[in-house]
Amino acid sequence: MKHRKIVVLDGYAANPGDISWDPLRELAEVVIYERSRPEEVAKRIAGAEIILTNKVFIDRYLIENTPTLRYVGVLATGYNVVDLEAANEQGIVVTNIPAYSTEAVAQFVFALLLEICHNVGHHSQAVHDGRWEKSEDFVFWDYPLIALSGKTLGIIGYGRIGQATAKIAQAMGMKVAVYTRSAVKEGGVTVLSLDQLLEASDVISLHCPLNDQTREIINRETIRKMKDGVIIINTGRGALINEQDLTDALKSGKVYAAGVDVVSEEPIKGANPPLEAPNCFITPHIAWATYASRVRLMDIAVANVKGFLTGAIRNRVTS
């Protein structure tokens, strides 16, 4: 099988060098690029039967003009970086990597939420700056400290990550309401309409896929239906939120705080409205990126390629 050629177009994000590529090299000749600009892709995949991509878009032109191409492995769960219609027309197998970072992302939801509730980083810096030392009391704080127990977490989208997030919330004494089109089997979770969830929730966490129905599901009108002082968390996709509307709501105080690990255009641009918003915590799309998650991603990616080569295809996506 060594005569086969595998091209990795943007390996750095998933594997910046702390995980071995050797299991993939055992399957074929492998060429790894840390990053690829759009204008470089056609030349780099020429002659490849297999390509792996995380965020490099594989469009119809590339698919139709790479006659050797038989397989595209997406190094992520979302596979909107591949023109699936063109791939299906050409008989090209496309796979993704589901459920590799479920626990990590659910954990990160609460990293954002607990930072909002306690401002741990700020108060630690205040101590290092000598403010506690100068305090007349044994304690000081200069942001409200928020207890989560008894509050309602509204989860929009109830797949694996939404379910994992719900379990953590329940362990912390929160009530959980969900808006989902899927059946909910777990006890202790209240299924509501979207409007009901918006009205009932103290915290709203987004876990739905990005599509025509969910794009900017958080906007001026849906925010208007929320409780005053609501907290919004987004570890899903940036475009689930109208960022200007969120910024306006943060400035007015309608939304108390937001924690977002994703934005509409990544890397973030200086004109992105939430950069100017008060009490908005923005992290650079790292919820998924624990070492354990990335090892799992790499293991599944290799297994997907091996399945393609042996005819036992795994994790294929067709629509």
Descriptive labels:
11 helices, seven-stranded parallel beta sheet, five-stranded parallel beta sheet
Write the layout of secondary structure elements.
Elements: E1 5-8, H1 22-25, E2 29-32, H2 38-45, E3 50-53, H3 60-64, E4 71-74, H4 84-89, E5 93-95, H5 102-118, H6 120-128, E6 152-156, H7 160-171, E7 175-179, E8 189-191, H8 194-200, E9 203-206, H9 220-224, E10 230-234, H10 243-252, E11 255-260, E12 280-282, H11 291-310
Parallel strand pairs: 1-2, 1-3, 3-4, 4-5, 6-7, 6-9, 7-8, 9-10, 10-11, 11-12
In short:
The chain has 319 residues and is of the alpha/beta class. It has helices spanning 22-25, 38-45, 60-64, 84-89, 102-118, 120-128, 160-171, 194-200, 220-224, 243-252, 291-310; strands spanning 5-8, 29-32, 50-53, 71-74, 93-95, 152-156, 175-179, 189-191, 203-206, 230-234, 255-260, 280-282. It is globular and about 70 Å long.
